[in-house]
Write a structure and sequence with these properties.
single chain, about 200 residues, mainly alpha, 12 helices, about 0% strand, globular
Length: about 200
């Protein structure tokens, strides 16, 4: 597979349909995504950038999202998770409000570059429950892509833990938020359907 370049990222974003100011911002975000995710891989061994691009694609093609800022959040939603040190760069090029939204979408132990400890999961769940509808939509699309990608994970225990967390929290959160917008309603339906399919394939 050929390396992903900025034009590839712009195509996935659908930026050709955006206005000139939005396109300029998209080019900046594309460059940042290439920089921030470079050298990082998923546990499947694939380049990390493929995941946020898949989340953007899911939002556009299956949920119908067209808002540029939401799609840029999706593109960079894991930036501070994989590279907390990139925050200053994100502030410089995309602004402090955008970086603050990414902080809100990132677990504290990731931001603080430390191992997960007692109480972190509870705080992370509370943080996600406090997201704006657009931020939550990105996080639910992230969960959906991760769920679909479980088959490629070599860690069966991780898969089971992931499905348990979905049942205990994410599906309840999606259910509570589904009436906030048509996009969230669609995301809830997709997440629920994929969860059911996965449960049929993964034995307890």
């Amino acid at each position: 597979m050929n390396p992903i370049d900025p034009d590839d990222v712009l195509t996935v974003l659908g930026a050709a349909a955006w206005n000139p100011e939005e396109q300029s911002r998209a080019r900046v975000a594309a460059g940042l995504a290439l920089t921030v995710y470079e050298g990082h891989t998923r546990d499947q061994g694939t380049p990390y950038l493929e995941h946020p691009l898949a989340v953007v694609t899911l939002l556009r093609t299956e949920i119908g999202v067209r808002d540029p800022e939401t799609l840029l959040l999706a593109l960079l939603h894991d930036a501070l998770e994989v590279a907390p040190e990139s925050e200053a760069l994100l502030v410089q090029h995309l602004g402090a409000p955008f970086a603050a939204r990414l902080r809100a979408m990132t677990a504290d132990h990731r931001l603080e570059r430390r191992p997960k400890s007692l109480g972190d999961e509870t705080r992370w769940r509370a943080k996600q429950a406090g997201l704006t509808p657009d931020e939550l939509l990105v996080r639910l699309a992230d969960r959906l892509h991760n769920l679909r990608d479980l088959a490629a994970s070599p860690n069966l225990d991780r898969r089971r833990r992931f499905l348990r967390a979905l049942n205990d929290f994410h599906l309840l959160l999606a259910e509570a938020a589904r009436l906030l917008s048509p996009h969230l309603e669609t995301a809830h339906a997709l997440l629920q359907a994929e969860y059911v399919r996965q449960r049929q394939e993964v034995r307890p």
